[in-house]
Amino acid sequence: MWRDALLVAGKDLRIEGSSKVALNQVGPYSVVVLLLFGFAFDQDRPLLTEAAPGLFWIAVLFSAVLAVQRSFALETSDGAVDRLRLSRLEPAGIFLGKAAAVAVQLLLLEGLLALGVVVLFHARLAGAALLGASALVATAGIAAAGVAYAALSMGLRVRETLLPLLLAPVLAPIVLASTEAWRSALGVSTGDGWRWLGLLGGFAAIYLAGGVLSFGALMEET
Amino acid sequence: MLLSVRFRGVVALAARYPLLAGADLDVAVGEVVVVRGANGAGKTSLLRAMAGLLPLVAGEASVLGLDPTVDARRLRPLVGLLGHRNGLYEDLSAEQNVMFAARAERRPKADVQSALARLGFDRRVAATPAAKLSAGQRRRLALATVLVRQPRLWLLDEPHAGLDAHHRQLLDELLDEVAASGATVVLASHEQLADGLEAKRTVWMSGGAVVERAAAPAVADVVGVAAEVAPAPSAPCPQVPHVA
Amino acid sequence: MSQERVRTWASAARSGRPARAARLTQVLGWAALVTLGLTTWWGLWVSPPDVVQGQYVRMLYVHPAVATMCYAGFGLCALASVAWLWPRLRSPRWDRLAVAGAEVGAVFCGATLVTGSIWGRASWGVWWTWDARLTLTAILFALSLGYLALRRAIDDPHSRALVSAMVALLMALTVVVDHYATSWFVTLHQGETLLTPDPTVHGWQLATMLMSFVAFGSLFAWMVAHRYRLELLEDRYDAEGYTSALAARRAEGQAPPEPVAPGRAAPGQPAPEPATTAGAPGGPPSKVEVRVS
Question: Could you tell me if A157 and A141 are in contact, meaning their C-beta atoms sit under 8 angstroms apart?
Fold first, then answer.
């Protein structure tokens, strides 16, 4: 399973490397989202600085939906799904590989967004351990949930609208928890950031386990 | 005679529409069989059922000795399917596409080069991204990804589509080689086949079942399908299965 | 596995004690009507207004019951989904129960949000407050809409049952996470808790509130029963089409096609489109899908 996961992740990342969709399209989109927040809040600086963690994670959520859709669009555009089904690859491995590739792309995007938030909203980053750890765990959960739901909507006619509808409420607790973790790390809030990290871990565990167990059946049905 | 495929009264559903409505078929090991029939007759569904991609709700089926519904996971790696679409990754080069297929099957890298060479790819073309290849090249690339897996059962859906005369001949030679080495080939086609393949056993499909030639509407590339005498189906319609 | 698929389609052909079930739903219906009437009467006229909240306390007779039934519906959906996924227990009944629970639950969830909002506006002057339960209910509502949209998008009954069951289970686990997230969020920000029942409820107020639970409970059960029956009838309708669908499919290619105008291609469509192939005399009737909202 791990070998298959590495193979699939490598394939997806190689495709990203040559098509550069995340780099050239999703990245700029996410930065523009930050700009839009600036316009929406009338460039009210103290407000933007305080809201920075939340706005960051919302921008990540929007980018995640695109990244996950792209991950499956490259499988369905020429009907490569049948080839995956016929191969010896274990479905759980395919799931982990795709989730890993999405996670890597998201982490790079988060780096870009963090820069954006520092520059545009004058946020000051501190508490690197908690920031980094929560970003990692949150990303794992987002990637796992995203790939699972994208897989099951892959074969449907209405997938472009169904996937955001499914993902947005599902990822809501991640936005909440990671924002609170970041606020705690930045010293803006008095809560216990590490408790939120635990919650993020729980979510990631649910979707990683759920995806591994159900991906075989999902690939058959869609 | 050892059978590669044995179907008896096979029914397959998509939602509530019967793709296959009682198909009977026997294919021996090492045979090359051509499936013909009008659009919508069920040729693609028959191939997918043989690949274990279509769950069967009634009838008996045995492909390479395995039940395609129950043992699908064991059967599928032994089967190579070339569908209507090529199943390629547009942004990867030809060579990378074949390499992924090979590594997914745990085949050695040397197989990749030989597969590409066999399908007429030179170095330069092999390094081109799949999106930039012509339709015929993409079809050949898809065949290369099947070849590198060395399946025991080849299922090809309109494999000659988009190929010029030279490459059609290449494909026909390849299929003969493959059959000679003990693999079974089933291909669905509309095309006027080369004489060599014309001589192979042909099976006709109509209305989701395998029928006698006279029972199928004449296959024609142009307008004006001739009317056929209304025939009897080759097997009685399956009854509603008994449910617990 | 293959038998399972046709069982999903054809199982509704056998009826399960229709007379008793119909009578039970009738009883439920009358019970709901009567108890709702009682609740309205007691709620609006008999029970006294509250010392603190005045007339607005009457929301107590609607909101808590409706909210409880909303959670009951989703809980039913989650449990039925687990039952469906359990190999030995698998049966289309669980899938029908799951969709009934989810749909009725979604209706009650919408009602919960509306009544909660109205109560909040009346008592505190705000249409919305970020308290834990209200936020959680809003997320639940969105999740349920996603679940129902997903069900509508899948045509094959077995696929639909399998995918919805898995999604329901995943969503149920997510709700557990949400519960902790929202309650921690609220205690952190010291939000107002609007929905704590008044601890000094007694006498007529208590009686009316209890009656409202019985009333909305009966209404809930009645609606679930009817939604279940609707799903069953739809499955039965489709099941009757099995043999004729097969016959029609086989007849497709055999009748002479209509004379086609020059320039038009030979008729024919790839499966699984409905067979509008020119020449199939009757056309398979079974592809009619009864869409239920």
Answer: no
B15 close contact with A: CB closer than 8 A:
no
Average pLDDT over residues B189-211: 73
ipTM score of complex:
0.87
Average of per-residue pLDDT values in chain C: 75
Asked whether residue B239 is assigned to any structural domain, the reply reads no
CA–CA separation, C161 and C155 (whole Å): 10
| Residue B209 forms part of a structural domain | yes
Interface membership of A79 toward C (CB under 8 Å) = no
Q: pLDDT tens digits, residue range A63-110?
A: 999 999 999 999 988 888 888 988 889 999 999 999 999 999 999 999
**What proportions of chain A, in percent to the nearest 5, are helix, strand and coil?**
85, 0, 15
Query: What is the spatial distance between Cα A70 and Cα A63, in angstroms, rounded to a whole number?
Result: 11
Q: Does the distance separating the beta carbons of B145 and A88 come in below 8 Å?
A: no
- Nearest-10 Cα torsion for C74, C78, C79, C85: 160
CB C279 within 8 A of CB C267: yes
H helix or E strand, kind and range, residue B186: strand B184-188
Given B19, B55, B240, which is nearest C242 (Cβ)?
B240
- Rounded to whole angstroms, how far apart are CA atoms C90 and C100? 17
Pure H helices in B92-193: 94-104, 109-118, 123-126, 135-147, 165-180
Residues B79/B185, Cβ–Cβ less than 8 Å: no
Taking the domains of chain C in order of start, what are their residue ranges? 58-205
When divided into structural domains, chain A yields a total of 1
Task: State the DSSP code for C44.
Answer: I
Rounded to 5°, the CA angle C136-C139-C144 comes to 125
Residue C161 forms contact with A (CB below 8 Å): no
C-alpha A136/C-alpha A147 separation (Å) is 16
Using CA coordinates, name the residue in chain C closest to A175: C181
In a domain, B238, yes or no: no
Q: What is the pLDDT of residues C99-122, one digit of tens each?
A: 999 999 999 999 999 988 888 787
Say if A150 is an interface residue toward chain C (CB within 8 Å).
Answer: no
> C interface mutation test: which of B57, B62, B229 has the most C CBs within 10 A?
B57
**pLDDT digit string, tens, across residues B28-58:** 888 888 888 888 888 889 999 999 888 888 8
Q: Quick one: which of B32, B34, B66, B31 has its CA closest to B50?
A: B66
- Which residue, among C181, C190, C132, has the nearest Cα to A198 in the 3D structure? C181
Instruction: Give residue B66's domain range.
Output: 3-215
A214 contact C CB<8A: yes
- Amino acid letter, B154: W
Q: Provide the mean pLDDT of chain A.
A: 88
Residue B47 lies in a domain: yes
Euclidean distance between CA atoms C255 and C271, whole angstroms: 18
Nearest Cα neighbor of A3 from B150, B92, B99, B103 is B103
Is the Cβ pair B39, C268 closer than 8 Å?
yes
d(CA B158, CA B165): 15
Q: Cα C268 vs. chain centroid, distance in angstroms?
A: 39
Amino acid at B147: L
Q: Is B104–A88 a contact, with Cβ atoms under 8 angstroms apart? A: yes
Which residues, other chains included, contact A58 with Cβ-Cβ below 8 Å and sequence gap of 6+? A33, A37, A175
Give the tokens for residue C111. 């009602």
Q: Which of B8, B11, B17 to mutate to test the interface with C (most CBs of C within 10 A)?
A: B17
- The count of structural domains within chain B is 1
- Nearest chain A residue to B96 by CA: give it: A11
DSSP C121-190: HHHHS-S----HHHHHHHHHHHHHHHHHHHHHH--SHHHHHHHHHHHHHHHHHHHHHHHHHHHHHHHHHT
Instruction: List the domain range (segments joined by +) for residue A46.
Output: 2-221
